[in-house]
Amino acid sequence: MKKSILIIICFLFTLILYSHPWKPSHYVIVDTDGGIDDMRAITMLLASPDVRVLAITVSPGALSAENACIKVRSLLNSFYHEGIPVGSNRNVKYKSEEFQFALKTAWGDEKNITATSAPDYLKVISDILSLEKTKIDFICLGGMTTASRALAEIPAFRTQVKDFIWSSDGETGFNYNIDKDASVKMLKQEIPVKMVKAFSSPDDIFYNNYLLGRIDSANTVYSKKISSFFRAQTSEIHAFSLSGTDEMSVIFLHYPELFLSKTAYNISDCTPSDPDGLRNAAVRILNGETVSRNQVIKEFPVEPSFYFDDLGPAVKEIIEKYGVDEWTSGVIANELHRHLGVFAIIGVKMGIRAREYFNTGVDEFTATSYAGSTPPMSCMNDGLQVSTGATPGHGLLTVINSATPSASVEFIYLNRKIKLTLKPELSEKISSELKEINFVYGLDSNIYWELVRKNSIKYWKDLDRHEIFLIEEM
User: Fold this and answer.
1) N or C: which end of the chain has fewer CB within 10 A?
2) Are residues 132 and 249 in the same domain?
């Protein structure tokens, strides 16, 4: 009997390790006051496939709510995460003199971004809690104003938030005193609060040369953002830039074992305790190595020699330009499709772009394709399935057949809908080329498929998913 129980426990543990690695462990709402450490912390959260950032709210602190909102929106846009909602808390008593270094620090391109259109933070939080049924973590990188008001005015906030993680050094810290009344009030509530302290060492330097070198050598858009932040400080790096403050909350979310925690009632003081472990954790997070991406193989081959001679020279170029995710999805889609096809590649690029927009993983939204079921345009559906996980088997993909199919797909995530369409001139060009090759050589000719393959590799290299689609918010 004991042996049977042990086998069942081991089996269940194995399921925990290997089942649904695509589903993140943490669904989060982030509140920020626009500090430079907030930018790095938010970037780390966006980088981790084990975290789903549902929304970001801004409150006054290091910056005004208006300027913090512009910073956040520019950051999200720079990663093409335009679909993440940003709410603004404009109704606060506390007014701080803005930190000039934070104000001058670029998070992204701020042109044409205004804070006036940002919805109220309470509406954003309430909407997310009504749509996302998974328990969430509320991560506060500034003062307690937003959390305190949300707890008082949104009933679901108390029941839906499983952890409140606050970057704070306690009563002597800036975040505590941004709105002291809100801090006192929040800490008296029954909701558990984990106060994550700043990194501390003899020189208080978290971003030492070793860590900066590893971040600089990484090849993700998120690590490049952090590297560019430090490179922008050409003359002398601002002392506060090298410290680890709000980033500790993100590392704690992933690796609480790297902290010493002392709990009294509902409040836990969480102190960073392993400098090398913390730095290694930061690199893993920025590299997106917090959860396994695959179901069958541990690592996907990216060496050019692994692939056929005509494709090998394009491997590094495609990965450097568009990322490993597009590359792996493209390889799997074309193996599924049984030949290299232009529209299959278009489907891959469209699916990755939609996931970028909402900052989701796979299997997290529904898709309605208007590409129909007639090749070659319908081949787009194969690439779409691989890159998004929206498949008929999961009930997430619907294909509409009409007299006039189009390279268009509607995506719905958390009650928000967008439509992506391949630019008409590009769709016409690709279709015309395929018709011409078919007319000259015919589908039964090897030359036809060789030319299609050659075109597909060319388009895979040349078409930037950020430039080839029209995006309509519906």
Assistant:
1) N
2) yes
Residue with structure tokens 């096809």?
Answer: 341
Spatial CA neighbour of 343 closest among 250, 422, 265, 290: 422
Q: Euclidean distance between the first and final Cα of the chain, in Å? A: 58
Task: List pLDDT tens digits, range 52-100.
Answer: 999 999 999 999 999 999 999 999 999 999 999 999 998 776 666 889 9
| 397 membership: H or E segment, kind and range | strand 397-399
Which of 195-209, 406-420, 439-453 ranks highest by mean pLDDT?
Answer: 406-420
Q: Locate 95 and state its tokens.
A: 């007014």
Say whether both 210 and 326 belong to one domain: no
Q: Which CATH number is 431's domain given?
A: 3.30.1330.130
Q: What's the number of CA atoms in the CB half-sphere (13 Å) around residue 235? A: 0
Same domain, 249 and 309: no
106 CB neighbour count, 10 Å cutoff:
14
pTM of the model: 0.92
Based on the number of CB atoms within 10 Å of its own CB, is 101 exposed (0-12), middle (13-18) or buried (19 or more)?
Answer: middle
Q: In what order do the strands lie in the sheet with 86-88?
A: 86-88, 51-58, 26-32, 136-140, 161-167, 193-196, 267-272, 259-264
Token pair listed for 159: 């029941």
> Tokens in use for 357?
């927009």
> In terms of domains, do 373 and 274 share one?
no
- Please tell me the total count of domains within the chain: 2
